[in-house]
Amino acid sequence: MPSPPLKTGKQPSAPVAAAEPGPIELTINGETYRHSGAPDMPLLWYLRDVLRLTGSKFGCGVGQCGACTVHVDGKAQRSCLLPVSALAGQSITTIEGLASGEDLHAVQQAWVEEDVPQCGYCQAGQIMAAVDLLKRKAQPSDSDIAQLTNLCRCGTYPRIRKAVKRAAQLIAAARTAEAKP
Amino acid sequence: MSGLSRRQFIRVMLSASGALVVGVGPASAAFTPTVPMELLGEALTSLGAFVRIERNNRIVIGARGCEIGQGVITSLPMLVAEELDADWTRVRVEQLPYGYEIGPDGPTNRYGPQGAGGSTSITDGWKDLRQAGAVARWLLIEAAAQHWQLPHERISTEASHVVHPDGTRMPYAELVERAAAILPPAEPVPVKTPDQFRVIGKPARTVDARAIVTGQAQFGIDAYLGGALVAVMLRCPHLDGSVESVDDSDARKVAGVREVFALDGPVPGSSFDGNLAAGVVVLADNTWAALKGRNALKVTWKPGPWAEESTAKLEAQAAEAFKGEGVNVRTDGDMAAARKAAKRVLEARYQVPFLAHATMEPPAALIKIEPDRALFIGSLQNPSGASSVIANLTGLAREKIEIRMTRAGGGFGRRLENDYVAEAVMIAKKAGKPVKLLWTRDDDLRHDFYRPFGVHQMSATLDRKNQLTGFAHLCAATSLNYRIARKKERPPGQGCLEADDFPAGLLPNLDKRFFSLESGMPRGPWRAPLHTFHAFAVQSFIDEIAVETKQDAVALRLALLGEARELDYSGHGGPKFDTGRLAAVLSRCAEAIDWKRKRSDGRGVGIACHFTFGGYAAHAFEVSVDGRDLRIHRAICVADVGRVVNPLGVEAMMMGGTIDGISTALNLAITVKDGQVQQSSFGDYALGRMAQMPNEVEVIILPSELEPSGAGEMGIPSVAPALANAIYAATTVRVRKLPILPELNRLL
Ligand code: FES
Ligand code: FES
Fold first, then answer.
1. Do residues B572 and B615 touch, judged by C-beta distance below 8 A?
2. What digits encode the pLDDT tens for the residues B410-466?
3. pLDDT, tens only, A72-102
4. What is the CATH number of the domain that holds A88?
5. Distance, CA B288 to ligand 1 centroid (Å)?
6. Is residue A45 domain-resident?
7. Residue A149 in contact with partner chain B when CB distance is under 8 A
8. Same domain, A89 and A125
9. Which residue of A has its CA nearest to B254?
10. What is the CATH code for B220-305+363-438?
11. CB-based contacts of B544: which residues, under 8 Å, 6+ apart?
């Protein structure tokens, strides 16, 4: 069972798989949790089934769609492929932990402003992938953006493109504002 | 489903929290709402009606539709807000549950039509939801009239306030109690005229966008229930096959696995009113344990009656079928005579594959069955069907089944079928526990109601002057109407070949016939059913005729469409088809892509247009083929969907339809071999990714004063032919078989 207090997610009511050797300590959105269930459980299912952090989505379970994208030590990773045992000591951020309180992350803000979502199912993963891209490329070109490989069945790609560019501007503007006291 | 029927009236009530609640429903239920008063206004409970005006003047509007990505969670409440004159910027929208109830005249739905299919949500809501909003406003004005002792007509409204002739404004909230005591008018109240619109026609962003981008939006798959076991199933890969033997000893050893049992599939040949396939169910404490348990199963299968079926054999079957007579779909004039008299006869054969829906959120369902009631939470497109399925399998009365609706991670027709709901109920009954059923991607791709497979044999007769005198469209396909659940069997051609589709009625001689192919593949509606299926053949062939007769492909279509007039159209989206509206989207599209300009650098432009479900659309693409690399330089979509309620929403649907159309046309096919579906992942059913897509889709919505039609489906049928036509223009290679890329590679 996760260690209290739980600040995010709902208290799990389903039992976790029977205890196996030693609990694994995980840092997720700044909170520490101890997982004593199956060590090979992919992070995606730990987030969803155990912590009830359901923002990360299941789309394929084999790394092909990106709906489950989270950040591990700041880098985008597909959580369906990551056994929790490999994550001890690393810092995990999910879509639920991206905003600071009421303030949306610039990428989330851009997503709202460009009205990106259709069904919305892929969008948490798209946003997490875009945040990672913008960390690597502050002003991404069209071909940089085309490196995003997350699937969207609803066809929101052109708006994702616009939103990534808008987010880049928002981030740049915030930096400039910070630089000027 | 009609809008506000004779028996449905506006219901008004004052909730315990002092909010005015207005909805539609049977008249006599007006003061005996089935939702307990105490619950109204509470979070996580049913919103009793469409409108709730709270004490702080915040207006809550209930969204009745199934949100599958088509934007009804925004556009339908906009209709209510418009007539209520609510301040849209302060409106909160809440998803309504499924509203089945027993009214004084029998079963009814307290919210009106809720399903999502056939692009009808907006057309329905245009009638009854506007009326619901208008009545709420009427009551508030009446309350103000009493308060200010003025005639009703002298009071106006604006942004959630009533306005006194002297300009004094009073928030709606202050009139709520008085309004609730007023008897709603017996007759429908007048709705606004378009010049009075403040919400309709203005771009509105998705109301719950913030919840989506923060991961808080609830999809069916996100529902959990204490005590529910996670169920996954290993389904028989053979069409109509069955379980021969199961060795579950290893599966049961997996920590967390609670139960393993076999589940029968439908009797071969019987209608699909339950689950879709036989298999072995694993129930566990969590998803991972269930999946590991499933991996550890050792099952031998018995292939069913379709063990020989393959795509190659279906192709051969089609070729053979055309030698027969087929079923007449529409005959005008005398095509045989036209053939005899013709100077030239052009022929071409096109092929379209089975397609899977591959909704991004795979099927999932949460069900808890108790002796006298049941609770279901899941992503739905057809809640009424889900309710019947649960009732049939549990024996519970439908009003005892609570269905909570969530956002759905895509629909595209997949969720019109409720096989996954049935499967969850069957598993929960057998397990005697609440169950959360999850389908994995391979389950989803291998067990679907596929868009039919078919071959189109087209011919055109030309006279001496190269004038088109006749058109024949013979379609050999695995009929859409196969083992349909609880419905009368429909004519076999229906669902594959539309009798009155272009160019029917525009030529003296027409011959449309259908030839049914034998197949064990389950089939069902797939976004713009039948239209994506046959528009490729029709709109490609028209292009071929233009090339062969050295005519301009746009001019040829416009000449065929002729004078703007209405033709009879018996299919869904009728009863009329307006040739002028189709000509207008086509012309605008040609203009936008600069059709007449000669391209160099190996670029080519292709165009196509189509009428679907009351809406008109045209697509044009500019492409080049470099080696084996197809590049889409420009993509244009022009649509006329009548009056637009939410321009942002319609634009998104058209853009999404175009991208979906490209992704599908380029890459996607489901094939069969040895009676088994061959695709099982996004590796072999490769949805398009960003890099393959045009950077932009230029969407142009033609202004219209006509009644709105939905926009979910007309954005896709003309995509594949416009792409194939563009490829021809760039390369002189004619792609007559979908998907395009493998075929283009074969031909190059
Ligand atoms: S669910 Fe992880 S990549 Fe698809
Ligand atoms: S918004 Fe539906 S899958 Fe991307």
1. no
2. 999 999 999 999 999 999 999 999 999 999 999 999 999 999 999 999 999 999 999
3. 999 999 999 999 999 999 999 999 999 999 9
4. 3.10.20.30
5. 14
6. yes
7. yes
8. no
9. A17
10. 3.30.365.10
11. B346, B348, B734
Q: Domain of residue A37: give its range.
A: 24-97
pLDDT on residue B700: 98
Contact B697 A158 (CB under 8 A): yes
Which of A48, A75, A97 is where one domain is finished?
A: A97
Rounded to whole angstroms, the Cα distance separating B180 from B145 reads 14
Residues A67, A124 within the same domain? no
B374-378/B401-405 β-pairing: parallel
Instruction: Specify if A9 maps to a domain.
Output: no
Non-local (6+) Cβ contacts of B732 within 8 A are none
Q: Where are the beta strands (DSSP E) in B554-651?
A: 566-568, 576-578, 603-612, 615-626, 629-640
pLDDT greater than 90 at residue B5: no
CATH topology of domain B311-320+452-747: Aldehyde Oxidoreductase; domain 4 (3.30.365)
Number of domains composing chain A: 2
Q: What is the mean pLDDT of chain B?
A: 90
Give the pLDDT mean for A44-56: 97
With contacts defined as CB-CB under 8 Å, which chain B residues touch A67?
360
**Contacts of residue A52 in chain B, CB cutoff 8 Å?**
224
Percent of chain B residues topping a pLDDT of 90: 76
Which SS3 state, helix, strand or coil, does residue B153 take? Answer: helix
Centre of ligand 2 to C-alpha B96, Å, is 22
Residue B252 has what pLDDT? Answer: 98
Distance B340 CA to ligand 2 centre (A): 52
Same domain flag for A133 and A162:
yes
State how far the Cα of B224 lies from the Cα of A51, in Å rounded to an integer: 11
ipTM: 0.93
> Which pLDDT score, from 0 to 100, does residue B30 have?
35
pLDDT of res. A21: 55
Task: Measure in Å the smallest separation between the Cα of A180 and chain B Cα atoms.
Answer: 30
Q: Which of A37, A62, A97 is the last residue of a domain?
A: A97
pLDDT at residue B38 above 70? no
In the β-sheet with B603-612, what is the strand arrangement from edge to edge? B603-612, B615-626, B629-640, B698-701
| Torsion (CA) B351, B353, B359, B363 in degrees, nearest 10 | 150
Alpha carbon distance B239, B310 (integer Å): 11
Q: Is the pLDDT of residue B107 over 80?
A: yes
The DSSP secondary-structure symbol of B236 reads -
Q: A21 to chain B, minimum CA–CA distance in Å?
A: 13
Counting ligand 2 atoms within 8 A of each CB, the residue from A119, A157, A159 with the most, and so the one to mutate, is: A119
Give the type of residue at B704: S
Mean pLDDT of chain A: 90
| C-alpha of residue B27 to centroid of ligand 2, in Å | 40
Q: Are residues A110 and A89 in the same domain?
A: no
pLDDT value for B529: 83
Each domain of chain B, given as residue ranges in start order, spans 6-213, 220-305+363-438, 311-320+452-747
Regarding whether A110 and A91 lie in a shared domain, the answer is no
Does the beta carbon of A129 sit less than 6 angstroms from any atom of ligand 1? Answer: no
* Strand ranges across the sheet with A75-78: A31-35, A24-28, A91-93, A69-72, A75-78
Give residue B707's pLDDT. Answer: 87
To test ligand 2's pocket by mutation, which of A60, A123, A160 has the most ligand atoms within 8 angstroms of CB? A123
The domains spanning B220-305+363-438 and B311-320+452-747 adopt the same CATH topology:
yes
- Kindly report the CATH number that applies to the domain delimited by B6-213: 3.30.365.10
The whole-angstrom distance between A181's CA and the closest CA on chain B is 30
Altogether, the residues listed in chain B come to a count of 748
Q: Is the pLDDT of residue B653 over 60?
A: yes
Distance from CA of A110 to the nearest CA of B (A): 10
B555 touches A: beta carbon within 8 Å: no
B695 contacts in chain A (CB < 8 Å)? 142, 158, 161
Question: Per the domain annotation, does A89 fall within a domain?
Answer: yes
Structural domain includes residue A123? yes
